[in-house]
Structures are given as C-alpha cells and as structure tokens.
Amino acid sequence: MVERSALAIYIAAIVLFMMGAFATIILPFFDPDMTTPTANAEARNYAPDSPEAKGRLVYIANGCNTCHTQYVRPVKADVAMNLGPVTVPGDYVYDKPHLFGSNRTGPDLMWVGSRTNAQWNYQHLKNPQKLVPGSIMPKYDYLSEDDLNNLVSYLMSLKPATNAQAAAFNK
Ligand code: HEC
Fold first, then answer.
1. How far is CA 136 from CA 97, 127, 156, in A?
2. Residues 6+ apart with CB under 8 A from 34
3. Please, what are the averages of pLDDT over each run of 10 residues along the chain (171 residues)?
4. What is the pLDDT of residue 5?
5. Which protein residue's CA is at the shortest distance from atom 2 of ligand 1?
6. The pLDDT of residue 51
7. In this structure, are residues 52 and 59 in contact, taking their beta carbons and an 8 Å threshold?
8. Cβ neighbours around 43 below 10 Å, total
9. Between 3.20.20.140, 3.40.50.300, 1.10.760.10, 2.60.40.10, what CATH number should domain 33-170 receive?
10. What is the pLDDT of residue 148?
11. Distance CA 12, CA 18 (A)
12. HSE-up of 11 (CA within 13 Å, CB side)?
C-alpha cells in the first residue's frame, strides 16, 4: 500500500513519543514510592558541611561513578554477587545528583561501607594494586589528606541504615 499522508505518520510518531514520555517521566513524580524517603535515604541525608557530604563531592569530582554503580537490582547476577539488599526508589530521595552510574568496571558501591573498613579504603584509594594485585583502578594518591579522609567517610557511610536508625525513622 502506498502511504498517502506522511503527516499522519509524523503525528502518530509524536503522539506515541509523548505517551512514552508521559508514562516514564511525568507519571513517576506522582508515585509516592519515588518521593518518600526510606530509613536508608535518611541515613544518607548528610549535613552540608559533614565529611560525608564533602567526600561525596570528591567522589563526583574524580569520576568514581564512571566505573562504579550504586544500585542493586533484583536479578540473579546482583544477588549472586552478594551486593547487599536490593535498592528501592525511596533510598535515593536525597541522592542529588544521583550516583547510579551506568557501568560496572569495578564492583557496585551501594553498600560498600558494610563490607570494607576505613583503614582498608584509605590504603586502597592510595594504591589499589598494593591491596588487590592486578586491580585496574587508578591510584588516588594525588588527593589531599582532607579529600582522602572525607572520601573514606563517604564510602563508610554507604551501608544500610542501622536497626536503631530504622527504628527512630519508623516511629
Ligand atoms: C577505571 C575504573 C575505576 C575507577 C575510575 C574507580 N574504580 Fe574503584 N574499583 C575499580 C575496580 C576494577 C575495582 C576492583 C578491584 C579492586 O578492588 O581494586 C575497584 C574497587 C573499588 C572498591 C572496593 C569495592 C569492593 O567491594 O571491594 C572501592 C571502595 C572503590 N573501588 C572505590 C572507588 C572510588 C572512591 C573511586 C573514585 C575516587 C574509584 N573507585 C574509581 C575500578 C575503578
């Protein structure tokens, strides 16, 4: 069949696009799951001057999110890697700009604070290859002592809310 009206196709394409945009961009704003913080989100609602908030800026400035994600999906691959609890939208309410990342060259860091300690992270950032032979993570030995310590504080804060935090939050 010869298509008689190109205009009809353009309009149909635009309408379909708008429906897609509406469903995936506008509708989620009305979903309380997206906007209600969880206890995990509250635990990451850092005061602006805290070491964790400053460390987060160091994380962003050094592009850690180009190699590391911060989300755990309910799929076999993530569960098998033992990454920690599956994350939900409410966990990210205060994570602005969010640091999901889109590439896992290194492991997911959503809950890295519960499987590493401060001392290890400090040494690892300065010289990953010394602790993990063959690691392709760059050395961050050029960071100032302040930046390194703040970054470590940030990494250590990346863990599920403690029972006490969760209880206080659910009151
Ligand atoms: C070029 C990619 C790359 C970049 C950029 C990068 N990393 Fe990594 N990272 C890796 C790889 C690969 C590993 C796994 C090997 C290792 O532990 O060194 C890793 C491991 C880690 C671990 C240990 C995770 C675990 O579960 O054991 C932490 C913590 C970490 N990186 C933090 C950072 C931080 C903070 C930054 C930014 C300052 C950063 N990484 C930048 C690739 C990268």
1. 26, 11, 22
2. 28, 89, 90
3. 82 97 92 92 95 98 97 93 92 94 96 96 98 97 98 97 83 70
4. 86
5. 67
6. 98
7. no
8. 21
9. 1.10.760.10
10. 98
11. 10
12. 4
Cβ neighbourhood burial of 44 (10 Å; 0-12, 13-18, 19+): buried
Distances (CA, A) of 66 to 35, 54, 137: 26, 19, 11
Ligand 1 closest atom vs CA 143? 38
Looking up tokens 């206890």 gives 39
Query: What was the pLDDT predicted at 1?
Result: 59
Q: Quote the pLDDT of residue 170.
A: 76
Ligand 1, residues at Cβ distance < 6 Å: 59, 62-64, 66-68, 105-107, 109, 112, 115-116, 121, 128, 132, 135-138, 140, 151, 155
Which DSSP string corresponds to 105-155?
SS---TTGGGTS-HHHHHHHHH-HHHHSTT--PPP-TTS-HHHHHHHHHHH
Amino acid in the structure at residue 127: N
Question: What is the pTM assigned to this prediction?
Answer: 0.89
* Dist. CA 136 → ligand 1 center (Å): 8
Q: What is the pLDDT of residue 4?
A: 80
DSSP secondary structure code for residue 10 in this structure: H
Q: How far apart are CA 123 and CA 148, in angstroms?
A: 10
At residue 77, what is the residue type?
A: A
